[in-house]
Amino acid sequence: MHKSRTLRFARGASFTSCLAILAVPGASQQSGGPVARYTIDAGTMSGMAAMGAGGGDSMGAMMGMMMGGRPNQPLHELVLRLGSAQAPADGAPQASHFLPAGAGLGASVPLVTPRNAPAEYQEDQAGIPGERPKGRLFIYWGCGAKAAPGQPVVIDFAKLARGQFPPGLFMNAASVPQAWQVRYANSKTYGEWPNAQTRKPVPSSSSLIGEHRIAGNYSPEIKFALKQDYMPAINPRSAPATGGATDISWNALPQATGYYAWAFGGKENGDIVWWTSSASQAFGGPVWDWVSPASAQALIGKKIVLPPSQTSCTVPAEVGKAAGAMLMGSLYAYGPEANFAYPPRPTDAKVAWQPEWTARVRFRSHAMWMLNGPNMEDMMRQMQGMDDE
Predict the structure, then answer these.
(1) At a CB cut-off of 8 Å and minimum separation 6, what does 205 contact?
(2) For 240-270, how does the pLDDT look when each residue is reduced to its tens digit (9 = 90+)?
(3) What are the helix and strand counts (H, E) for the chain?
(4) Phi, psi values for residue 250, rounded to 5°
(5) 366 close to 291: Cβ distance less than 8 angstroms
(6) pTM, rounded to two decimals
(7) What is the DSSP letter of 359?
């Protein structure tokens, strides 16, 4: 890859990491409710999204593929969070998730309590850390050969205060029916995996089907049987269209409740281009998270998320022209959700219900790829061929 393109990609990737920090949905303190809340967010990653999964780095993953690794092999991600209204019964907080044998992670993984609040939950993370971006941000949205009137919206970073973005750039969590969250900030005692102590990669053959048990010294025991598994990989492709636009398409996933695509690119002068498949100016926030079926349905109604029946979209010609040769795409397929509680919710809505614990499992599939280049598998074959010469 040409050096200047690599530098532009690195700047864009750094910018995107900053956006991810800003786009984390907010968490609010719950009053009442169960003693313990547990969430499992399970994802399938393909293309460049699979590079660096499990704590590695994308360049190392790319080099591994060049040395004979399997190109474009889907991987899994697993995020476990336990929140409790209780303090530990004795000593330091301890908790573990005991997994089915098919998970491929051993008998259990530790849910470690951070010594300090994770950075993404700290209140002072309101701006972009480090160097202030230079140049301008060009914002486009919507599927179609040509950008709609009023586009692009241009934001000049030089006119913004250090580390700040203008209001309204990111979607607000209130834009969708926000599901309950387990966070360090809304739990008396909190544990998570992956964590600083253990961050092993989830095998591509991993399965979550079977019995799950979560036990610790600060929450009641949580037990449930999961019948759903990771979603299949989503495999986006792109092709030039008439007039300079780019057609993107992907395989339909039976479990998908909706799709959302976005792309970004950058130039040497510091200008950055950002596009989303949403019919309105809706970026980041909840759409970068796991999205419940109910939220996906609401977002489809607002034309922010594409319906599960749609498996293609056209990136306007103006986006590719503004971004130049470097345009990275990202595609999300939102999936099903499973909920558990003890004691179970009464069938009679008039009967009072006070569960000891609630648990939720959400699924999604995510892919990243270069819109203006070969798909990942073709690119790796080319790189392997060059290495053999």
Answers:
(1) 104
(2) 998 999 999 999 999 999 999 999 998 878 8
(3) 5, 16
(4) -155, 165
(5) no
(6) 0.82
(7) E
